[in-house]
Amino acid sequence: MVESNKFSLLRFFAVLLLLFGCFTSVFAQRMIKVTGTVYNTANPRHKVPFTHAAVMVYGCKTVAEGEDIKAKIDSLGELTLITDNITEIDKNGYYEILVPDNGAIVFKPDMGKCVIERVNNRMQIDVGIDDGNPLDQVTVTGIRKEIMPEPKNSRLVGNRFFPFNIFVIPSHNGNSYSRLIIQPYVLDCNSGDTIAFCKPLVYDGKEFHRTQDRMMGYDLKRDPLAKFVNPLPLSTERMDIEWSDTVLVKDPNGTYSCYADFCIEEYGGISYRKTHQVNTCMNKRPMRFLEYSFMYKNLDFDDYKETPQVEKRNTADKVSLTFAVNSDRLTDTPENHLKLEQIREKLKAIVNEPGAMLREFHVNGVASPEGRYTSNLRLAERRMKRIQNEITSILPRSVLARVYQNPQARVASWSEVVELLKRNGHVAEAEEVQSCMDRVPNNFDRQSNIMKSLPFYRELIIPCLEELRQVEYLCQYDIYREPTDEEVLADYHAYGLEHDYTRYEYWRLFQSLTDDKELELLAKKAYEVSLEQNNPWILAGNILAAQYLKRDTFDTRILEPFIDRSVSRVNFERRNVNTGRLEIINPDAVIVNQLCMYIKAGDFEQASIMVKILPDLKEYELMKAYALALGGYFQGGNTPEEKERAKQTFDVVKNSSPRNKVIMYLALETRLGDMQAEKALEDLPQNEALTWYLKATVAARKGEAGFNDAIQALSACFKLDESFIVIAQNDGEFDKDIVDTALDMYKF
Description:
The chain is of the alpha+beta class. 40% of the residues lie in helices and 20% in strands.
């Protein structure tokens, strides 16, 4: 008896231990993957992702542990505390971390206080941190002011204009106690606006300073024109002042004129003042017909791969199970066993997946309509409950408590039998069944008895009834996972540009789209979104720039945020002092595309800076030479290096094509250059209008000796292409007589 009591007590305690184990397993912590974005809320009207500094993310098993970590970090004032569960936001402010569903997350910004968030079974937690408005990096560059007059019949090469003239001062206009001031300035011929003042020319008579000192207490240190005074003194003799200057203009395709104010000042006042036009709006443009093409370069997608962000995906599984007649037992078929096992495995996978959350679980039991309706309904309920209990038994109570369940039981109607008969091609029989239903509507029992008397009941109706005896299982769940390529493309085809994509999704779409217009619009949206977030995206910007260049347009603002002019090289690796991430400064593709943008925009000064950044490689040689040549950097130079570079530029462009050989020799504007150009013209097609236009240019430069040849060549050009008429009328290479006579010959 005592022994039996001992065994009873042992069994009792064993049962208690098992129950305790089950109890603890039910309430054990479940690890989930939490994702989100950390935002900077310094500006409450425009929160943007935290990208300018590092933010550490700590996963805590309990809220209490999170409070302890927060207090410790805040008291020490450190950014990093060594723990076994820590991560960091990426360059887009995004993070991922595994934590218990009832734990906590602590966020530590670079210079700010910690922020703690309770998980509370949330799988996406976005956090706002006020870190103030960070100062952008400032690059200080010197601005060199240069004069930009527009000379009469002078050269216009790139952004540089070369005005010149000889100012004749007749005798007795000046004297030894006077000052001559000449102030040239440039006008825009289209708007009439003054766009630049050249350096003034100042000539003082020998007695001018002493006279001023006697009469007015003249102080040379307070004279604003003192630094411009020429050593040659003003006198009563005639003066021929040769003047030239170089002026930078923004639009190399504009037309400009140069004027000058002439003023003679004496101690008693101004004795002479008059304005003269120095140069007309007729400009020489020797580089107008240079033959060149643009290249564009794409960044390597693998070098700029984005981190895939897990997203909530609504997913549903639907399975049908069939049953034996008048029973809640499944029909013993391999299909049923396989479907039931798949249901169990799917639910287990959802429960054990940190990134999944079961939302709804529905079981709908259906009985076929033969027999009594009430009995059939009870049978449907038994089928539904059996499957529901069998499936949900594998789910932990903590999970099952959060799942919405809506079990349903119903009896299929004979109308469903009608539809199945039609589906199987038995239209006449289906109509007969419908007729039987119409005889006793809403009386399911009598309908069932009538159907059994139909001659095709056993052959056609019973198979339909077997198909209706089933339980439908529907499971809906959210899963946080990376989107597949197919899903990303499906979202794009469904929503287009109206959809909000992550950078990873943009990255995938950039590689999938083949239509240039679609790619440009998508890249433009991605780039504009990145600007709104104060985090310009180099990949989207470069794709947009390349697409612009493809269709012969430009916008120099696109790639500007990704260029550091203080670094005179490409692909320079530098670690960001704020985030610690390694960055590539001045990627070669960005510099190449921006160089082409500046060329198209006519900003050859900035283009020359891009040329200096690009390495001296064969693949860039011709494009760099084009940029320098179009900007006028193909002759002259102040140092031996600059002179050598100008010579190399001239030779590379000259040898790039027969036409460019003529253009470059003409651009020298020297007698020897004109002779070389005339000789090189023999290699150009003689049936092209441009060839004859260039022949006319060479002849016009010979003056009176080439007057008739210029007219003949220009007339031949007009006959081949009328569009050259307007070009010639505005070209400083030809005077009005040559153009008008050539036009008369063309019309005749």
